[in-house]
């Protein structure tokens, strides 16, 4: 788990390594950078081992401290010795590692803030449907599939669609994609459906981390559950958030907010990732301040 080959990342790493070798010009000049990289990796792996044996394997705290502390002392001695080579090339892996960490930490923190903002304005789905169908809006033919990461909350795309178009499809599906901590999920466990009444359904599509998500194929499996999908009469509604950096002191630093907004704009398209027919997708945007 976690060791998944991503071609673009691998080729980028290849180019960076080639550029580093060319930039340093010789193996002797590269030795300082190599020494810092290797000893720092050893030290970080030892520190991470503590969290594995303590919080996953549930070993006694004293044993965890003693075992990892012994190896961490040795690794720290090696690492501190290589720090004398920082000016001779050791700065390079530290700079690259720091930049990568800043990007990853910013993305993680930004996603946390984004979900906090979205959840703060979220409406419980069942409560919303009960209120909606007291005076049901006009229903139009076809099927609307609203993708949502939180199956118990009303998708923002549905709220925007009702607010602007004033109509609701005769069949509405709230679809959530779940990735489990197993390599593969068998087809017999791929789909879970739940009727919400008034022609509304909640679907959960489950994949393993080695499965290739394919919603078109997954919806075909729904026929065994009594739910037929005609792709020419099905529209997929997606929410697209536009990240707006603010000066909120509870958020991130300004440069991190701008970095997260740039990464969000250039993130991969979910329609390609989930193999959704592009001519059946409708994206409804919303501004989110972080």
Structural class assignment: alpha/beta
**What is the terminal-to-terminal distance?**
31 Å
Radius of gyration, in angstroms, nearest whole number: 25 Å
Shape: elongated
| CATH architectural grouping of the largest domain | 3-Layer(aba) Sandwich
How would you describe the oligomerization state of the chains in this entry? single chain
Residue share in helices? 40-55%
Would you write up a description of this structure?
- The mean pLDDT is 89.
- By secondary structure, the chain is an alpha/beta fold.
- A six-stranded mixed sheet has the order 3-4-2-1-5-6, sandwiched between helices.
- The protein has nine helices and six strands; from the N terminus they run αααααβαβββαβααβ.
Provide keyphrases for this structure.
2 domains, elongated, Rossmann fold, 9 helices, 49% helix, 6 strands, 290 residues, six-stranded mixed sheet, alpha/beta
Summarize the structure.
With 290 residues, this protein is α/β, with parallel strands linked by helices. It contains nine helices and six strands, in the order αααααβαβββαβααβ. Helix 2 (27-56) packs antiparallel against helix 3 and helix 4 crosses helix 8.
